[in-house]
Amino acid sequence: MSTLPAPVVAYPLISDWIRFEPDGTLRVRTGRVELGQGIATAMVQIAADALSVAPERVRLVSGDTREAPDEGVTAGSLSVSVGGVSLRFAALAARARLLERAAALLQSSTDALDIVDGEVRRSGMASDLTLWRLAEEVDLAVAITTDVPPVPHTLAPLPRADLLSRIAGGFIHDMRLPGMLHGRPVHPPALHARLLSVDVDALAARPGVAKVVRDGDFLGVLAEREDDALAAVAWATANAVWSDGPAESLDPVAHLAAADGEAEVVLLKGEPPAEGTRFSVEVSRPPLSHGSIGPSCAIAQWSEERLTVHCHSQAVYRLKAALAEVLGLDPATVDVIHRNGAGCYGHNGADDVALDAALLARAVPGRPVRVVWSRADEFGTAPVGAPMVTRATAIVANGRIEGFEATATSFTHSSRPGPGAPYLRSAYLIEDGVPIETPGDIPLAAGGGAERNAIPAYAIAYQRVAKRVVGDIPVRTSAMRGLGAFLNVTAIETLVDDVARALGEDPVAFRLAHLDDPRARAVVEAAADGAGWPGTSADGAAYGIGYARYKNRAGYCAVVARIEVEEDVRVTDAWAAVDVGEAINPDGVRNQIEGGIVQSTSWALKEAVRYEGDRVATRDWETYPILTFPEVPRITVRIVGPQDAPPLGCGEAAQGPTAAAISNALAEALGVRLTAMPFSREAIVAALSA
Amino acid sequence: MQSFAFVVNGAEIVVTVPPETPLLYALRNDLALTGTRFGCGDGLCGVCTVLVDGEPRWACQLRVWEVEAKRVETVEALIAEPRHPLVTEVLAGNAGQCGYCLSGILMQARALLDRTDGVPDRAAIATALAGNLCRCGAHGRILDAIERAARTIAEAA
Ligand code: FES
Ligand code: FES
């Protein structure tokens, strides 16, 4: 640990992160928020371990613009590798300073001192010094430095502390503030639809309606009772008249496949081989819905010139800036506080619903207003995971891949709101709102959006990778778990399998022949070993493998899938191996990988958001089926890799390798390559009869 | 507004609500039993599952008048001490990520264990949960937890 992570540079003092409270607790601040991935548990673990205090003493403050550090967006699997490491630096710096003081008081060397639940021991003997007493006389408003001694881990990994409280009612959906009203927006059926007419008086006269808010094309109701608000919205949805869009149905993948604008080369290395056989694939994925089981929710309250918003945004400071801009407020008068939402897998409706709540609450100053989106809002109003088409080519000579080219064509993976980026759904609707705009994608230096993981992990001398971002569609697209990595890894890994099969090579051995990095080789070998590779097809099953290092610099992950094909594809088993460096909470890592495998399987086999004209036709779980209990694979996860290496993050590592493994198993089973997701029954029938 | 009397988690209660109020909102907002959740309102996700006279039902699809004089059980009954083995095992196995789906799953699993002699096999558990969605992908751990709870209950019987 030699250089300080960016959050520590921005918040350089120990006291920016850690405070010893008079009641014997430890106040720990982090800008990373709990999204259901268990990050709060990991943060408590890190602080308690580094300071040798009982975890029960840690009070975590996260994602609160009134006091927690601004760490940007909780995303990109950086929560532990950057956020957690920052906190550990702060905690170790605090420990070192406090022990120095203890050494002076006890006339001892710091080496002879130890801490047990916050009590200082000298040569194993108790003293009357505690970290809290020492903190009274030691200035912790000092800079965190890198020259502090590391401390061996003593704390066993913690179980998830928050699960029980969540079951009983620990979500923002369950918060009840005094005087709270229930608000519901009536969202337009399409991005460009305008509100032509609605009988506001008739709406206001519906049972229980306290107020109707219409501001430009924004429409919403307020009621004392939630059920009354819902009934009023049902009436408004049936009676409001919106402008029509084009009759022809939007087909985002066809639109991308036809795009021929200039592609931007993001990586070019080596010279194309003079000769060789070319193999190509073109794969696609449709728009995907986040599909959190709990819909987007926020509570807003205006009082005495302040706006307070409770929400489950991934980026409270960025939302604060965007809200201030849209509402014409001084950002200093806006507080945004993170609360638990249901699972978050990317840029969903969490920010949009916060603006809806603020717009509705503005009509009833002083009263808190809670807004919960409908399931149809989740499908039709929240940003969707960007559809993509990736074409990849391998140039094969001398029995190996000597050259590689890829072009990822995509809509943007980045329309998050932030300072100067007021991309909130209802900001496009209100009078004096903002014009509808399609923001650009994420550059490769920041991990890339469309081109994420379009760079192969293999030792290939010539590589040319390009991205083409298409802007002109009537749909909001944004970041979803893995971004471009999900499809790009599928493209690369299916290509590698096609080449191996054409050369008569075993897919695992062929990969290993192209992998230099020993950590990469180890995960591929461990996954194959776990699955008993090469599996037998005698039992009607087929096996496939996929591998990637997320973002080419984060966690390593290989997945082997076993499938059975009858009418539908069934993934019966998956074996994964991951190397995430130091696994701070191994069970948390396993949980994330298991969840990633299930979700990626669901995306690959079942999911697509569909349109009628420019209106979203996907409205419910019937029109958007996801993987269910009887369909989930048995999953085995092995954690491999050096436990003294820096933690790498794991939340998105399995998305690409899983889909690739399924695609490869399918090619093995069917003898033909399916390229357009989802790999549904219809897609299989079409491929076999082609 | 109209008054309705029924039994919730063993206690007789009366709520005074508009008669068409879905049971889900009477539980969550009028009775402050927030463990029963809203997910879709369409009977398609299972997060609102409660037991009515022992049968699993979607609280989003029932009107309050339909449970008049009946016994309703919600996840709060399982959480209360002495904690139901299903809850104990879910916690012990970290069987969840966000946890939003768990209340409905726990109720559905309870109904299954109540109507099964001995320990149901994994496929039977999965089939019973076919209408309960989980987006975080915690399925495997949840199935493991339910199997363990079923064994605990069978051993105690
Ligand atoms: S909320 Fe009742 S089934 Fe989804
Ligand atoms: S744990 Fe998040 S939906 Fe199941």
UniProtKB/TrEMBL annotation, chain A:
A Pfam family the protein falls into: MoCoBD_1
Origin: domain of life: Bacteria
InterPro entries: Ald_Oxase/Xan_DH_a/b, AldOxase/xan_DH_MoCoBD1, AldOxase/xan_DH_MoCoBD2, AldOxase/xan_DH_Mopterin-bd_sf, N-heterocyclic_Hydroxylase, OxRdtase_Mopterin-bd_su_IorB
Aldehyde oxidase/xanthine dehydrogenase a/b hammerhead domain span: 168-246
Any one GO MF annotation of this record: oxidoreductase activity
Protein name as catalogued: Xanthine dehydrogenase family protein molybdopterin-binding subunit
From TrEMBL, chain B:
Transmembrane parts of this sequence: none
UniProt xrefs under PROSITE patterns: 2FE2S_FER_1 (PS00197), 2FE2S_FER_2 (PS51085)
Coiled-coil spans in chain: none
Lineage top rank: taxon: Bacteria
2Fe-2S ferredoxin-type domain span: 2-78
Single GO term (MF): metal ion binding
InterPro entries for the chain: 2Fe-2S-bd, 2Fe-2S-bd_dom_sf, 2Fe-2S_ferredoxin-like_sf, 2Fe-2S_ferredoxin-type, 2Fe2S_fd_BS, Beta-grasp_dom_sf, Diverse_Oxidoreductases
Record keyword Oxidoreductase present: yes
Pfam family of the protein (one): Fer2_2
UniProtKB keywords: 2Fe-2S, Iron, Iron-sulfur, Metal-binding, Oxidoreductase
PANTHER family named among the record's database cross-references: BLR6218 PROTEIN, OXIDOREDUCTASE WITH IRON-SULFUR SUBUNIT
Protein name: 2Fe-2S iron-sulfur cluster binding domain-containing protein
Taxonomy of the source species: Bacteria, Pseudomonadati, Pseudomonadota, Alphaproteobacteria, Hyphomicrobiales
